[in-house]
Amino acid sequence: MIQSALHLFHALYNVKGLIEWGGTLLVCVIVFVETGLFVGFFLPGDSLLVAAGVFAAAGQLRVGTLLVLVTLCAISGDQTGYWIGRQAGQALYRRKNSFFFRKRHLERAHNFYETYGGKTVIIARFVPIVRTFSSPVAGAARMTYRRFLSYDIAGGISWVGSMVLGGYFLGKVIPNIGDRIHYVIAVVVFLSLLPAIIGALRARSHSHSRSPKTDPPAALASPEPEREQSGPV
């Protein structure tokens, strides 16, 4: 069991092997699952897109096709997550933990939404795990579909474009960087996790400075920010 899990983990995070085996189609599938389904929170979104850009620079993938198809899948994934949250509503917050679902990830996305409002749909694109849960939170909070769609399109284009083109230009500037792709992935993973690390440290520091009696837990907060209003879909 443990050996099988380790083998799966190694296969999923061997982005070079994934791209060589499945090409653009597999990149699209992984991005859709990561952004649209709870089970995809652990998938390697950022590193996969940067690596795909590097391989596109080497001529192994078509950069134009990659940008268009992956962006569409990223937007479609978020749409799926939004409607899951919209249909589930408050029940989403009462769902029990399982192997593929952790309530703490949902609460983290909710806190993000409380802080940034609708812009969470864009900002969360660049934050691993939060990007998987931000769309269901927006749906559960009854963000109007028109507003969500505009943020979703902007976020999908900016996320996929920056990651893929970043890898593409890196591949053009540094010869044979594909042979050292693991170093690139390590840097991307570190930069992706950096905001979460900083946020956790700030939250910990802030919690020490406040009285526990006046600090209600985020899990008890309403999933709908006061500034969000229900409207026609």
Write up this protein:
This protein is an all-alpha fold and 233 residues long. The chain has one domain (20-208). The chain is 68% helix and 0% strand. The protein contains nine helices and no strands. It has helices at 2-12, 15-36, 45-57, 63-88, 103-116, 120-123, 130-140, 145-173, 181-209. Helix 2 crosses helix 3 (45-57), helix 2 (15-36) runs parallel beside helix 4 (63-88) and helix 3 (45-57) runs antiparallel to helix 9 (181-209). The radius of gyration is 18 Å and the shape is globular. Mean pLDDT is 79; it is low at 213-233.
Question: Which key phrases capture this entry?
Answer:
9 helices; disordered C terminus; mainly alpha
Short description:
This protein has 233 residues and is mostly helical. The protein has one domain (20-208). The protein has 9 helices and no strands.
Question: How many DSSP helices?
Answer: 9
Q: How many beta strands in the DSSP annotation? A: 0
Low-confidence stretches: 213-233
**For the CA atoms, what is the radius of gyration?**
18 Å
Q: End-to-end distance, in Å? A: 45 Å
Q: Which structural class is indicated by helix and strand composition?
A: mainly alpha
The shape, in one word, is globular
The helical percent reads: 55-70%
Count structural domains: 1
Sheet having the most strands: none
Average pLDDT level: 79
Write the layout of secondary structure elements.
Elements: H1 2-12, H2 15-36, H3 45-57, H4 63-88, H5 103-116, H6 120-123, H7 130-140, H8 145-173, H9 181-209
Helix pairs in contact: 2-3, 2-4, 3-8, 3-9, 4-7, 4-8, 5-7
